[in-house]
Amino acid sequence: MGDAPRKEERDSEQPEFTTVGAEGDISGLIVAASADGIVAVDDQGNIRVCNQAAEELLARPAGELIGAPFGFPVVAGRAAEVDLMLPGGGERVVEMRATTTTLEGQRLHIAALRDVTHRKKAERELQAALEHQNVVVAIAAHELHNPLAAISVLAHLLQDQHDAMTPAQRAHIIDQIAERTARLQLLVRKLLTASSIDAAGTRPVPGPVPVLEIIVEQLADINVKPGEIQVSCPSGLTLIADRAEISMMLANYLDNALTYAGPPVEIQAAERAGCAEIRVTDHGPGVPASFIPHLFERFARAPETEHKAEGTGLGLWIVRVFAHANSGDAWYEPSGTGGSSFCLRLQLAQAPRDASAR
Fold first, then answer.
1. Alpha carbons 268 and 335: distance in angstroms, whole number
2. Tens digit of each residue's pLDDT (9 = 90 or more) over 275-291
3. Euclidean distance between CA atoms 77 and 267, whole angstroms
4. What's the pLDDT tens digit per position in 64-103?
5. Are 267 and 335 in contact (CB under 8 A)?
């Protein structure tokens, strides 16, 4: 083709879309293509014709496009997806369909371009959502199986051996069934909570929540011996949050401490720096240093602990999501005794009326 003509010459020589070539009217090809952008490329790969939609799609004016290399092979009858790097640094995904015609004796390859960036993004988001859903279902199935199987065995044992058991043995089995049922209920709550977070529905209106009251409610739901959980909290300490969410946060912290460390566990609540701060501290082995950055990630479980206890890897993630949603924060600190302190900071509703620990 030789050197590209100067702009003045290109403007005078550029064929109109209505010009009829040997194989038909280009305007008819444009209509048939039903695409946003049209470029006609010669055998050397240079753009000879483009429409306004192509200018917008490629983020370059016709004066720069015409005579410039298109940069992608245009093969008649073949559809392809092209990743465009725009002059401003942006990216765009374009679906390209091609045909060939002749215009004033020159063979041209007509590329019909359609912007599918949003569609591809939606497809990726859908794929990610499906993969996430599969992960949740797999985790739920795995984690529900063991406690359900244990409850079934204990229930059948109680049924078959009831008369041969002493009252103490029967009470022990009933306690085990109750403990596993409570863990199942917490697991289901975690899964339902994760689903509600994903749904991103209307946020509840936060209100005043007495911290000691919430702690006592959680202790009532935990099957531990006296003295295994120690509490320090001013009776008047009140924070601003959604009550159900603060209950879930504390329940997850306690479940995490009892599952991975065991009693004794300390719950300390106090006013610090104008906020209500709650710490759940255990005396276990602590968290491996390599895993600390991932503690509050979704589905995160330290490889060192996976064989020791059941878990979904959702509890701490839920705590941080709810903490941030209530204008607070959640984090981890190693305790002075070598165990773990999981901390929660939320807005303070009022100063404690009684500074004595309860």
1. 13
2. 999 999 998 888 888 88
3. 70
4. 888 888 878 887 777 777 787 777 777 888 888 888 877 7
5. no
β pairing state of 79-85 and 47-50: unpaired
* Confidence category of residue 343, pLDDT binned at 50, 70, 90: very high
> Can you give the chain as a three-state secondary structure string?
CCCCCCHHHHHHHCCCCCCEECCEEHHHHHHHHCCCEEEEECCCCEEEEECHHHHHHHCCCHHHHCCCECCCCCCCCCEEEEEEECCCCCEEEEEEEEEEEEECCEEEEEEEEEECHHHHHHHHHHHHHHHHHHHHHHHHHHHHHHHHHHHHHHHHHHHHCCCCCCHHHHHHHHHHHHHHHHHHHHHHHHHHHHHHHHHCCCCCCCEEEEHHHHHHHHHHCCCCCCCCEEEECECCCEEEECHHHHHHHHHHHHHHHHHHCCCCEEEEEEEECCEEEEEEEECCCCCCCCCHHHCCCCCCCCCCCCCCCCCCCCHHHHHHHHHHHCCCEEEEEECCCCCEEEEEEEEEEECCCCCCEC
Distances in Å between the Cα of 291 and the Cα atoms of 198, 288, 301, 303, 338 are 25, 5, 8, 9, 16
Cis peptide before 147 (omega within 30 of 0): no
Provide φ and ψ at 328, rounded to 5°: -125, -155
Tell me the β-bridge partners of 268.
Answer: 232, 279
Burial zone of 277 (CB within 10 Å; 0-12 exposed, 13-18 middle, 19+ buried): buried
How many other C-beta atoms lie within 10 A of the C-beta of residue 338? 11
Residue corresponding to tokens 């607070």 = 328
Neighbours of 328 (CB within 10 A): 22
Residue 275: what are its φ and ψ, rounded to 5°?
A: -125, 165
**What's the pTM value of the predicted model, to 2 decimals?**
0.51
Inter-residue contact 237 to 349 (CB < 8 Å)? no
